[in-house]
Specification:
Elements: H1 12-28, E1 33-39, E2 53-59, H2 62-66, H3 69-74, E3 77-79, E4 89-93, E5 104-110, H4 118-126, H5 129-145, H6 150-156, H7 158-171
Parallel strand pairs: 2-5
Antiparallel strand pairs: 1-2, 3-4, 4-5
Helix pairs in contact: 4-7
Length: 183
Amino acid sequence: MDEIIIVEYEPLWSQQFEEEAATIWQVLGNDLVTRIEHFGSTAVPGLAAKPIIDLLVGVNSLEEAKCHVPLLKALGYVYWQEDPRPGRMFLVKGMPPYGFQRTHHLHIVEADSALWERLLFRDYLRSHPDEVQRYAALKRQLAECSKTDREAYTNAKTDYIQAVMAQARSHSTSYLTKNSYPK
C-alpha cells in the first residue's frame, strides 16, 4: 500500500534536495543537464507535505536522458517507462514494492516543457504565507479522504492549484529565470 501521509514542514528538505541534485547532476553530467529545480510542496518553507522531494531536471535531450536510466536505477530510482504524459520522464526513489517509502520524484524534461510553469506555483506560495496555510489545510483534508488513492488526492487539488496559478501568472514570470541548482 502506498499511503498518502502529510507531515509538517521539515527544514532538512532543502538540504536533501541539494544533496540529491548534486548526485543527479554528477551522474547525468554537464553535457546533458541544463538545470535542476526543487519544486513541489517540500520546496515551500512552512508547507505541510508528503515527505517526497520533487526534482525538476532540465536536459538537452530526453532521448539521451533515456540512455542514462541504468545509472539512475543504480541510485535506487524506478523509471515509469509507460508514463502516459508525453515529453517527460518520471522516476521514483523508494517506489513500493521496491522500497519502504517514496523519498524522491525525478521529473526529467527539456527546456520547452510546460512543466517549468509549476515553478510559478512554488514561487507564489513562497511569497504568500497565507496561501501556504490554505493549501496545507486542503492537503490534510484530501489526504484524510483519499488515504490510499494517490490519483484521487492529486486530482482533488486541481481546482485550487489552477486558481493559484492564475494569480501567480498575473504576478510573476519567475519560472523563466534560473533559480536552480547549482547556485
